[in-house]
Recover the amino acids of this structure.
């Protein structure tokens, strides 16, 4: 256990120092009362001697400095204050938001690349297996676009096939297949959480 030191500052009483941190030790007193209690509050000081935050509290306001020092060594752990914890969490949140924003941009770029790669596809090539949710994400991305010419090009000329039990059939292209089959995929996701 790291050892600290007590510093007596006259009328301001004791401060406890350890590992570059300074804590003012305050003896508890009932609000509006005259008698002190056996509770000691340790409040960390900033560089200018102002209060930062309550670090901890403990029972045992010893008058003998060696006993008080032992209690401080045991109870004041130099863990982050509530104020520091909040600041750290806000920084982590900002970093995570930046990562999320970056990933969302990359996902949009990949969807765009898939769109371009498959739009003018004339020859049969090996299809890409996607999970149901990813399939719908790409599909929805296609039809959120404002370009009417690109919408028509994506909507028509791309047949929808259904595979089952080693058989498959062509359900043609356009609105009929999309309205029934694609929406059926959406219904599968709502009924079955497994992300195949």
């Amino acid at each position: 256990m790291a050892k600290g030191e007590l510093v007596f500052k006259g009328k301001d009483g004791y401060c406890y120092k350890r590992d570059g941190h300074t804590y003012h030790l305050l003896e508890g007193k009932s609000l509006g009362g005259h008698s002190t209690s056996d509770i000691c509050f340790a409040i960390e000081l900033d560089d200018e001697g102002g209060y930062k935050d309550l670090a901890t509290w403990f029972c045992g306001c010893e008058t003998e400095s060696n006993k008080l020092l032992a209690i401080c060594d045991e109870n004041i752990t130099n863990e982050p204050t509530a104020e520091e914890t909040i600041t750290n969490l806000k920084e982590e949140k900002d970093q995570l938001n930046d990562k999320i924003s970056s990933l969302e941009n990359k996902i949009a770029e990949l969807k765009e690349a898939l769109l371009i790669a498959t739009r003018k596809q004339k020859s049969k090539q090996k299809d890409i297996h996607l999970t149901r949710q990813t399939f719908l994400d790409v599909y929805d991305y296609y039809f959120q676009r404002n370009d009417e010419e690109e919408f028509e090009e994506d909507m028509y000329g791309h047949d929808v096939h259904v595979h089952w039990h080693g058989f498959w059939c062509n359900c043609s292209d356009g609105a009929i297949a999309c309205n029934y089959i694609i929406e059926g995929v959406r219904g599968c996701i709502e009924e079955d959480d497994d992300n195949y």
In short: The mean pLDDT is 78. The beta strands are 5-8, 14-18, 21-29, 36-45, 51-59, 161-164, 167-170.
